Amino acid sequence: MSNAGQAIAFASRLYGQRAGTAYAGYVKRNPLALLRLRPGRANPYPVYDRIRADGRLVPTPLGNWVSASHAVCGEALRNRRFGVRPAESSNAGPEEFDLSFLEMNPPDHTRLRRLAQPAFSPKAVAGYHDLIERTVGDLLDRACAAGGFDLVSAFAAPLPIAVITGLLGIPDADFDEFARYGAVIGSALDGITSLRHARQLQASSAALERLFGKLFALRRSEPQDDIISRLATAGDDQVKPGEILPLCVLLLVAGFETTVNLIGNAVLALLGHPEQWRALCADPPAMAAKAVEETLRYDPPVQLTSRVALESVELDGKTISPGQWVVTLIGGANRDPEAYDSPGTFDIHRVAAADHLAFSSGIHYCLGQPLARLEATIALRLLAERMPGLSQAGPIRRRNTSTIRGPARLPVTAGSARAAQRIPAGT
Ligand code: HEM
Hints:
Oligomer: single chain
Number of helices: 19
CATH class of the domain at 44-89 and 105-149 and 257-422: Mainly Alpha
Bound molecules: protoporphyrin IX containing FE
Helix content: 40-55%
Strand content: 5-15%
Strand order of the largest sheet: 1-2-8-5-3
Radius of gyration: 22 Å
């Protein structure tokens, strides 16, 4: 088929799917479709409650399954009879973006994850502490000078970008280009939204391939202590030539698109619950990590993932046939009343009854979670120490996505540094 023919076929499929989702959501009130539409994006939690009210594991009209139960989602994510792609297919399809081992089953998953693992070991992550603290400090200096600022573009987004480009060993001169193209690729995590989007993606992935190619050549001749050097000098038994680029893109995109939303969701929840913000400001070193954990439970940046049965498997007393998918609604599982008391209450003093699933579970448990936790904890601690008078200064705009959840814009003012300190915590 010609390029123009392919584009027309792609566009008609895409717009056909959109019309189908709108019909299923608005007319048929199908909860999964609603989650992909404006009301579900604005507030998915009532939709999760509705799904949970129908059962712990519910069949979908397309012959798959969905769950908002903490126990069932956890079991599906941990059970090795499920995979992230059907047993017979091992590569990304033509219209999918190749996200390396995130979308692979063992043994390829195990081999590639093992290669990336050392960059996220406790020792390696502790080594990023100073860079994170310096970056947060610089961003807050600039924001303080401005008085009012957009918390997302001025604070939550630049931090993870600076950290992941440092971790990958991307030279300062190439920083802006990597950031620009990485953001476009990250926008595809929720699916391709238009023909224009598909073209931008194609152009950005070609540009990233060129930039990473240059960097691999550099590190092959002069290896340094970074993950690109490790990948560029690894043997064919550890990584095949075509696997290096998708792996780097996965780390870049995972670094860009998730932590920003954790910080954004945390500030949004804290400012929406002033007594919780005051509790954080009263003792930032003790409370910042707790505020991060409660945000991960209450409003997780990744709202859902899915698993496919590789063979026949029993789940919650039902038989899932090979090839059937189970959509695990992480945001719903994290508010399951069977797992948490008052699950809809945001409480940074909460002693968790069950582990939240914000970072998934099982063999695909988020590799970058120690880094994400450290970044967000330092960000909240310094924000509370330096801007206790922080307040929302205008309406938020949400990201136009349903898998990834967070504010796209959150206007705030720093306020007076002493304003919030006068108010006792816990009131
Ligand atoms: C708050 C921030 C983050 C959240 C909420 C998050 C969430 C997740 C989730 C839910 C998964 C598993 C998806 C599934 O089971 O299908 C995952 C996997 C992964 N994450 Fe994160 N992530 C975050 C930050 C990061 C960072 C900063 C990095 C690295 C720079 C990272 C790297 C990865 C990688 C490489 C995987 C694939 C693991 C595997 O397939 O074995 N993540 N993440």
